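Friendly challenge for the regulars: who can give me the structure tokens for this chain first? No prize, just bragging rights.
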Amino acid sequence: MESLALAKAPNAKNKKLQDEKTFRLGELFCGPGGLAFGASQSQLANEGIKFSVKHAWASDYDQDSCNSYKENVCPDSPETVICKNVNELDIESLPPIDAFAYGFPCNDFSIVGESKGFDGHFGPLYSYGVKVLNYHKPIFFLAENVGGITSANEGKAFEKILFDLKHGGDGYNLTTNLYRFEKYGVPQTRHRIVIVGFAKNLNISFKVPEPFTRSNLITAQSALESPPIPQNASNNELTNQSNTVVERLKNTLPGQNAWNADLPEHLKLNVKGAKLSQIYRRLHPDKPSYTITGSGGGGTHGYHWSENRALTNRERARIQTFPDNFIFSGRKESVRKQIGMAVPPRISKFLFECILKSLAGIDYPSVPPSYGAQQKLF
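First reply, four minutes later:
Bragging rights claimed.
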């Protein structure tokens, strides 16, 4: 790919090259395609040059996720999605890329569970992204993970990850921030660490965009009812609720869960130890949804504020900002997992637009990064 300097050079014979700058995107742990779908919708123009992101290749070990990705992100080139375990992936054989994205598995960094960090099975998987940086040397990358990553292994895991990403390829300028997605147009209190890296030779540092829905949060009711979900929408089947669950929900007010609702004794849960706030928790119609997760069973499905039932997968997808024509492959439980593990396309589109603005030299309102002090670790 020609350099950005060439794209801006006032040379008449390079006019055709100046018209468009398309950044080829590679992705690991792609899931159903929330990151790539949003990225592919991000585009802008500056000084006669169109900047955009285009899918090049992606990989995930889950077949249903790969099928969803193929159908929605790259239906004309399904062979560019490689479905296999990342430790079996030949990274050096993958086509060249200019951009890289990965939401590396968060299971061992999440505050829900044992938080094993690098001591768990999933913790070290971030290193495969570093291998991509070392070999393909993309112009920029975006990595996403749960906020709990900062405290895993007493904070040492996060320090190691940042160090390795900073020194990947020929070196990257990192900007690390904890994003509260509800402040960026997502109808959900989903808080995630996002790391954006620009190749050092570009002399660009990503600026954290200023929140734009800080005082006018999008509510769960608005997400699900404006407009209403079409009756023939895919992935919208209801869950059969037991009589006990229905009775429990009847005694649970919007926003309440199994622990703070005024439940009759026979409907209370006999649980000792940690009591997760999401268990049989109803959405509140006037607030953003709580975090949609990929877990299932045990009252973690997400529950409607007025109807005594779990959310449908299409409703979960709405809260995750997937459009209604985004069709998920697989059985209902698989779809629920795909949706819960995905990056909301709306935040992806917005962040990639800000990345493109940075590359195009377009300024935008910004705030200091929440982890700017981490730079002293390097």
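The longest strand covers residues 49-60. Confidence is low (pLDDT under 50) at residues 5-14, 106-123, 373-378. Your move, everyone else.
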